[in-house]
Amino acid sequence: MLKNLPQLEADPLWGLLNKFHADQRENKIDLLVGVYRDESGKTPVMQVVQDAEQRLVDKAESKAYKQLSGNTKFNAQIAQFLLGDSKKIDTQCTIQTVGGSGALRVLADFITYLSPNAVIWNTDPGYINHRPIMEAAGLKVEKFRWQQKHGELDLDACFTDLSKAKAGDIILLHGCCHNPTGIDPTLKQWQALADYCKRSAVIPFIDMAYQGFGDNPEDDAAGLRLFINQLDLVLVAASCSKNMGLYCERTGAAMVVTDNTQQLENIRTVLERITRANYSMPPEHGAAIASLLFDDKKAWFDELSTCRNRIVNVRQSLGAVFRELNAPLSVQIISQQKGMFSLLPLTAEQMVILREEFAIYGTANGRINVAGLQTSQIRTLAEALISIIKS
Ligand SMILES: Cc1ncc(COP(=O)(O)O)c(C=O)c1O
Predict the structure, then answer these.
(1) Regarding predicted confidence, which is higher, 34 or 139?
(2) Which terminus, N or C, of the chain has the lesser number of Cβ atoms within 10 Å?
(3) Are 268 and 95 within 8 A, CB to CB?
(4) Which domains are assigned to the chain?
(5) 51 CA distance to ligand 1 centroid (A)?
(6) pLDDT, tens digit, for every residue of 270-307?
(7) What is the number of the ligand 1 atom nearest to the C-alpha of 130?
């Protein structure tokens, strides 16, 4: 069997991270991996999470198996968090998953199970793991352009590419804080995308990995809720990795919202059948923590807003330095984008120069994690960028 083992290249992101760790320069800057960092460069465990963990230890409940759907209280709470006061709370089925990635995969398997010829329409550029997850589930993936024009998403480009989608295909959208571009639709544009789905019978699949990292948890869910309230079938993958800082606890949820309420129980059975044949049931610890955070949203939201405000402040400070240095508009726009990521307008070769000459590490496609920047590094990045663009 092993004679068939292919010689695969190491994951490019982790390969670059290894390079970063081996780099001896003291002034090196890591803007690679998508984790939140505070001003000191740490990815802290939130205080509310530490308190919740202490309470769980004190209670020391059983480790006996939970449901196949995971922690049912967590499922109800995350559904509420996603949907707010939408009436569709009564017409959804939510199961806990192994992080947001697990939710993406379970829903991809769900699509394959029900509609194997459906094509997934993925934003270009898009989240690096969307295509592999969808393809691993046996689905075909096509792309549509996701880019900025006059400071906003260029919907004409989206719809031109999407004109090739057929009824029953799936459009994979980012609920907020688009990864890697930071370009989010306005509410009007969400409406235009929802109208497109209605008109073309294309099914929306919304990946909500950063709720609370853009504007605030409510506003970040506005596009998702608009879709849910207007369309009769929406798939949602949610992650607690960023907004609760639960990364390695692998906590997320897969949700199917449908007007066909008679099918809800069947949907649950199919989703559970999918997870049963994979990892059986998700890990409890992260969901138990998340559930306690949902119980006391105020304390959690306070800490979440500290993370969000830091990202917003970094973007604003970058914007101020860009203006001072008369940077091109393609660079200045970074200050208006949302969430942790932005794409630098640099080629792969220029990203190598950024790394080798300036010790600043972003991914080959130009993605940087804005939350990785410390205040003292803002000017360094701005000057390096402008120098590379000008030369
Ligand atoms: C857009 C997007 N979706 C999903 C995920 C996966 O999140 P998780 O770590 O919860 O699997 C990420 C993580 O970076 C992401 O950026």
Answers:
(1) 139
(2) N
(3) yes
(4) 11-44+308-390 (3.90.1150.10), 65-295 (3.40.640.10)
(5) 25
(6) 999 999 999 999 999 999 999 999 999 999 999 999 99
(7) 3
